[in-house]
Amino acid sequence: MNYLDATQEAGKNFVQRGIEGPVVMLNLLRFRKVADYTDFPSLDPGEAISGKDAYQLYMKHTLPFLQEAGGEVVFYGKGGSFLIGPEAEQWDLVLLVRHQSTAAFLAFATNEGYLAIAGHRKAALSDSRLLPIEENRQ
């Protein structure tokens, strides 16, 4: 099973966690060999591109919306195989994105301008994971 979108139940559970303060989103991303713009013809670059290149388009267009919402990319790096975890599972890219709050993340994720370009992400990815991380304040 592949995961590209949050379910309604997962979104509800995220909000109900009641995270106070910043939330960091751990993104594990696996690219398609060739981006699939079938569901997003208005975003199609007009020639076949890799999933990695489509994700670069996504990031280019997403950063202004992220920054407008007070968010920032704190880590962007090449993935690979787990040292501890399923041996067959590999991720192409790992991102850590800090948002000021759950509300700020939700404002970013529902921004109409962002939603208009978010198809680059779906065209780029074959699978993903998104884990909200709450700072431990002990």
State the main characteristics.
alpha+beta; 4-stranded antiparallel β-sheet; 34% helix
Structural write-up:
With about 140 residues, the chain is α+β, with helices and mostly antiparallel strands. It has a single domain (about 20-135), classed as 2-Layer Sandwich (Alpha-Beta Plaits). It has 5 helices and 4 strands; from the N terminus they run αβαββαααβ. The protein has a 4-stranded antiparallel sheet. The protein is globular and about 50 Å long. About 20% of the residues are buried.
Q: Which stretches are poorly predicted, pLDDT < 50 over at least 5 residues?
A: none
CATH architecture: 2-Layer Sandwich
Number of strands: 4
CATH class: Alpha Beta
Order of helices and strands: HEHEEHHHE
CATH topology: Alpha-Beta Plaits
How many structural domains in the coordinates?
1
Question: What's the oligomerization state?
Answer: single chain
Beta-strand residue fraction: 15-25%
The N- to C-terminal Cα distance equals 37 Å
Helix-strand blueprint:
Blueprint: H1 8-16, E1 23-31, H2 51-68, E2 72-78, E3 93-99, H3 102-109, H4 112-117, H5 119-124, E4 125-134
Antiparallel strand pairs: 1-3, 1-4, 2-3
In short:
The chain is of the alpha+beta class.
